[in-house]
Amino acid sequence: MNDTIAAIATAKGQGGVGIIRVSGPLAFKVGQKICDLMVDNIEPRMAMRCDFYDTLDFSIIDNGLVIFFKAPHSFTGEDVVELHGHGGIVVQDLILQSVLNLDVRLARAGEFSERAFINNKLDLAQAEAIASLISASSKESARASVRSLTGEFSKKINALVEDVINLRLYVEAAIDFPEEEIDFLQDEIIYSSLHKLIENLEIILANSTQGALLAEGADIVIVGAPNVGKSTLLNLFAQDDVAIVSEHEGTTRDMIKQKINLQGLVLNIIDTAGIRVTDNQVEQIGIARAKQAMQHADVILLMVDKNTLAIINDLSVDLNAPNVLLVVNKIDKFDAGNDDELEKFLQAEHIKISAKYNLGIEALIQAIHEAVGFNKIDSNVFIARRRHIDALGRALAAINLGFEHLQKTRAGELLAEELLVAQNSLNEITGEFSADDLLGKIFSQFCIGK
Amino acid sequence: MHYPLEYEVIVVGGGHAGVEAALASARVGAKTLLLTQSIDTIGQMSCNPAIGGIGKGHLVKEIDALGGAMAQAADKACIQFRTLNSSKGPAVQASRAQADRILYKEAIRSLIYNAKNLDIFQQSVEDIYIQNGNIIGLKTQAEIEFKAKTIVFTVGTFLRGKIHIGNQQSSGGRAGCSASNALGEKLLQLPFRIGRLKTGTPPRIAAASVDFSVLEQQAGDSNIKGFSFMYQTQDTPRQISCYIAHTNTTTHQIIAKNIASSAMYSGNISGIGPRYCPSIEDKIMRFKDKDAHQIFIEPEGLNSSELYPNGVSTSLPFTVQLDFIRSMQGFEQAHITRPGYAIEYDYFDPRDLEPTMQSKIIPNLFLAGQINGTTGYEEAGAQGLIAGLNAAKLAQGQKTWFPKRHEAYIGVLIDDLITKGTQEPYRMFTSRAEYRLTLREDNADQRLTAIGYDLGLVDEERWQKFKIKMQNIEDSYSFFAKTFIHPNSFDALAIEKEFGEKIEREYSVLDLLKRPQISLSKMLAINNLQFINKFPQEVMLQVEINIKYAGYIKRQELEIAKLSKNENTLIAPNFDYSEVKGLSCELFEKLSELRPATIGIASRIPGMTPAAISLLLIYLKKHSQN
């Protein structure tokens, strides 16, 4: 017996048509719900034009074609529904979100093909191809996950996970150690923590549901030595004199934030003070802020020129991190003879530009798009975020239910059960937290033991 | 000399694991020998005089459902019975009994002596014979050689056991018993992965030297339910109370001042102790802001003059033990009868075991109990039963069996051990079981009796009694479904008054029980409603629990069904993981080392990814098509 899975089946981007594929025992029900169809109206393998409805507020999201495939006559060998809507990431995401509200899980990379193979719909020769697809895309999506988890989003989620663990700590300790005089289930603290947790979850969900990345934009921090050309680049991106550009070191004392649209991608660019040790107090504060900004950025542009290559070693920035781009500016000032030396120094992957003469800027924009996951063929970052939001939604539902049980019947074991479900959902984002990890926390917090 | 008789199964060790192993093997018809250092200590409770507790009570009921001995002996020795968590839901309620050590040992010995197919022999094992990678026999101290098709080791803390009291160290498997050093050294030469663990026990105190009048009395439940499905009220001996004492700041000062002389803090002990059963030294050093710890004062038996102070396990020197005990209120004149001590011992990495408790290194050798890194009588007994059963099945050329995580706490225990190993003595908790609402004490019989009967573990008497109970549950279900409460009737008014729930139309009793606020036991207490009191309490309770947990049980069943394909997909022991393309190096190494028996077990190896499991499944499927 399998669960029902769904995913956007077409490449991400602004194409004309986007397809959401749903496979599994609930697929037909999902199709019916989304398209508001009666059972009698369903005819397999027949394209039908209809409106797609939001499953929560019943508003119309899109208009397109729906096709039902009855098992075993489908790609996966299970019941399958395909929703052909308009292209465009926001619309497709809304449809996908509606589908996921119906007890459907987001498919893992390669999972449709995997089911097809297990159900004898693909031949042996194709098995190898699927295997390599799964292993390649699992690496890719792991990278994407890391990328999408930098910044504020991850900070909030980690705080939430901490809160859930702390609650479980009390609830599980009360269950497993009833003789230790720590029956927290009777404690009002549990109620107030639950209230707060539910409130926080609701806020995060509301903020991230509308495709956080596209609506809010990605945070990009430009870091480098003084006078390396950060402000020039920012001005070039923004087509506007937002930052002060001068030949004196340390001109940009504070951070300058600018929201720009870089070829379709919304970016919040943060230009920092040059990182330099100085006695000037103001500058010090700027540096501290720059370092702080780096911690929460989606992408870091580390900018150097031939005079400031050494900063790569001085800063504690991991050049191999997928969200760090090394940018070498002022290539117009390199002479051909010295270039070899430069290459030798720059072991890591890097992008050469001249902000002043507008050289290499296209390649840089491309690299930024890739680092954020805004790429026509790479939708992994976006999917990773969708996965997180999906997990948060399930966690919230579980915690609400658990709270209800506690209020109605003071049934601590049912609250514990729902908190476990919530934890498992959140584990999909933050990695495993096992029963033994929990016990470890209990023993370190409470003095337990007869 | 060669012993003239060849056995099918030999069990080495007569502790809680050894007893269950020997009895289970004999029950399924294998000619079995129980080989022990001392017949007099068979069934000895080496540490606290209690059976059960949260998670552990569940194990005892499961052992019982498979025909084991522990529950029956605990009932005969029970001098105080309590249902823990009685204010919480049935899934997390658990039984705990204070046991009279002598009565317990007698009950166990009577079961051993009366078992068919079971011989006992007293000698310590000194050597083992290995041929073609299998163990074929044993040699005892007096050079008597025994042969068997399969062998079960349940040697507890006896392998190179070392006892610490302050700075004094001595070899021993338990106070007063010698360690199995010759056997320990022998096993060291085999390619087992061996580690070192530590556990401890408190000093025992003479009851006559304690002033009980200043201690808080803790009586047991008046409603004694017993552990065994076969429990009869007349099994239970006289009930007595426990007491609660407290440490104080003086106690803490004494311990803190002498901490350097504790074996654990002086660096003499390298083994890791259990986090949930810390020594009094640990409690005081780690939780400095607490100025009192509660200590449970447990009687050792009806006729014993000794007390077990639960909560002050220690490896401090004897004089310090005496000082801190006497600093507690009521213990000013206390006399210590036996000093507390810490014990270090060898354990074998349980990841080298199959879920049948069979060694991956020597296929006809089975290991059970503390040798696998666990602690507790219940954990030991559970493993012993599975090891003894499978040793017998293997010897007889029959199919082996082990419970899965969704079937029993025993399954959780075994699966945790073989997939994750353990870094400290492993103890069961309900939070370890992901199917906690399904794995309850109250349905252990329903989960396992039929399986036990098929395996030959359960006798006819129990089987018939079980069938009657099941029939009763079914009848009671349909009775509740067909019995209606009419609006505005006296019955309805009584219910409305008791629960504050409106009965606006006709409802069956079954439907009423679906409401979370309405409880059956409270309904049965209403005079008007005596006509629904038609079945035994425990039978009607089953109906109620099933109704109240229905949504959750269904959800867990779906979850289990989803995973069942993985649990039932076998991986050959010699499977070549290098053939599976796309596995990361780390997972390749883990899988090659652990050699999981099924995809399900593989999926629970720490660090395993869904993608890697997909790759394995695809490879296996492809292979089977070839």
- Enumerate how many helices of chain B there are, as a single number: 20
Low-confidence stretches of chain A: 243-247, 376-381
Q: What is the CATH C level class of the largest domain in chain A, in words? A: Alpha Beta
- The H-and-E topology of chain A, N to C, reads as EEHEEEHEHHHHHEHEEHEHEHEHHHH
Q: Characterize the overall form of chain A.
A: globular
Structural class of chain B: alpha+beta
Give the CATH superfamily of the largest domain in chain B: FAD/NAD(P)-binding domain
Sum up the overall morphology of chain B in one term.
Answer: globular
What is the CATH homology-level superfamily of the largest domain in chain A? P-loop containing nucleotide triphosphate hydrolases
Task: Write the topology of this structure.
The complex is a heterodimer of chains A (450) and B (626).
Chain A: E1 5-8, E2 17-23, H1 27-35, E3 48-53, E4 60-69, E5 80-86, H2 89-100, E6 105-106, H3 111-118, H4 124-148, H5 152-176, H6 188-208, H7 212-216, E7 218-224, H8 230-238, E8 256-262, E9 265-271, H9 281-295, E10 299-304, H10 311-314, E11 324-328, H11 339-345, E12 351-352, H12 361-372, H13 380-409, H14 412-430, H15 435-445
Chain B: E1 7-12, H1 16-27, E2 32-36, E3 50-52, H2 56-65, H3 70-77, E4 78-84, E5 94-99, H4 101-114, E6 118-122, E7 125-131, E8 134-140, E9 145-153, E10 162-165, E11 168-171, H5 181-188, E12 194-201, E13 204-206, E14 216-218, E15 242-246, H6 249-257, H7 280-286, E16 294-299, E17 306-310, H8 318-326, E18 336-338, E19 341-348, E20 365-367, H9 377-395, H10 409-420, H11 444-455, H12 460-482, E21 484-485, H13 490-499, E22 507-508, H14 509-513, H15 520-524, H16 537-548, H17 550-568, H18 585-594, H19 599-603, H20 610-625
Parallel strand pairs in B: 1-2, 1-9, 2-6, 9-20
Antiparallel strand pairs in B: 3-5, 4-5, 7-8, 8-9, 10-11, 10-19, 12-19, 13-17, 13-18, 14-15, 15-16, 16-17, 21-22
Helix pairs in contact in B: 1-9, 2-9, 2-11, 3-4, 6-8, 11-12, 12-16
